[in-house]
Amino acid sequence: MESRGSVPARPSADEAVWRFTVPSVEVSVPQARHAVRDLLARQVVPVRDDLLQGLLLILSELVTNAVRHAALLSPQVAVEVAVSPDWIRVAVEDNHPYRPRPLDTDYGQTGGRGLLLVREITLEAGGTCDVEHTANGGKIIWAALPLAAAPPRAADPLTSPRTAPSAP
Question: Least crowded by CB within 10 Å, which of 22, 60, 99, 164?
Fold first, then answer.
C-alpha cells in the first residue's frame, strides 16, 4: 500500500467519525458494507454513486482480509468511517501485527489481489491509502477518497487504445 496526499490516518477535529466492531467471520463482510452504506445514507453524505461503490468495494476487501488473515489474533475487527467536508475515509483495524503488501499480478493465482484492487480504486478516485501499526501491535488499513470528482488520470500508453492519425 502507498500513501499519497495529506490525509492523516486518524480523524481530525473537523471530521464526523463513526466506529463499530464486527466479529472476524465471513458474514461480517456484507454486514459491514451494508452498515456503512446505510450510515452514509442516514447522514446524507454527499457521495456520488460511483465513489460510494468504490468505497464499499474497498471496505469489503479490507474486512475480508482481516477476517481471513487476522481472525486468530483478532476475534473482532473495528471499522471506522470518517467524513470531512472534502474526504471520506474507511479504516479497518485488527490486532494482527503483519503488515500486508499488495502482491504482484500473478494470473495463475485465484486470490491475493485485494490490496491491488484497493490501491487502484483509491488512486483512480484521486485518493490515498496506507497501512499503519497501532499502539497495541495490530494495524489499521485505511483509504481516503475525495468527495469532489477526481481529475482524469493520464492515459497509460501501454494499455490505451492507439488511434491512427487523421488524414489531412
Answer: 164
pLDDT of the residue at 98: 79
Region for 5 from its dihedrals, namely left if φ exceeds 0, alpha if ψ lies in -120 to 50, beta otherwise: left
* Partners of residue 1 on adjacent β-strands: none
User: Are the CB atoms for 128 and 4 separated by under 8 Å?
Assistant: yes
Lookup result for grid cell 481471513: 68
83: its cell numbers: 467524513
- The residue length of the chain stands at 168
pLDDT digits (tens, 9 = 90+) for 53-66: 999 999 999 999 99
